[in-house]
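User: I'm curious whether this sequence folds into something compact or stays loose and floppy. Could you predict its structure so I can see for myself?
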Amino acid sequence: MPSGQSIRYRRVLLKLSGEALMGEESFGISYSVLDSLADQITETHALGVELAIVIGGGNIYRGAGGIESGIDRVTGDHMGMLATLINSLAVQDVLERRGLTTRVLSALELRQVAEPYIRRRALRHLEKGRVVILAAGTGNPYFTTDSAAALRAIEVKAEVLLKATKVDGIYSSDPMRDPEATFLKRVDYLDVLNRGLKVMDTTAVSLCMDNHLPIIVFNVRESGNIRRIVQGEDIGSVVAEKIDDT
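Assistant: Here's the prediction. I'll summarize afterward.
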């Protein structure tokens, strides 16, 4: 519940990649990483922030790899959606062990383990202070969990989309491969699209642009960063509308 501390963003959608849950592992879930993420989410929620989370499934299954092996694209995408549900249940469990009340809402109907995604239900859970974990992407093939994150953020009226990564923000190129990569503190949506910057896929960025939803790209491995962002600290890189300097 609200702690009285200042909060810049009161409703947030956090996008976690499946790879973020792997840590240094080559596959699956690193439970030390899961615990660290849960600590950050718990301390942020304690401020009174309403949190929705979208998680990818690339630590378990990547559709692109299946296509290369001959698996039908639609089948592969549905397999990826199920992988996101596995990750969502893992995050739900670790959060509830910390005393948080959560709900997993799935775009695919699997009523034994998750509620079906209904926008009004998601909003109601957020209003009641529950952490809402949104699984199975959009429920449609050919759409990534990046696109799902942008869509769900807009649907639940989030004030910002937080894109968790393993680097400090947006760079002109991959800083893991290019030592000359330049850090970009603020970028407008069109610049991301025109330059092909690896922030989120083009559908996600376009959705955010059309609906004036800012994206903050940050290093989730730095403990406390989620809390710092919602309290207004200048962490990571921002994708937003162009500032008119004239």
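Summary: The chain has a mean pLDDT of 93. The radius of gyration is 17 Å.
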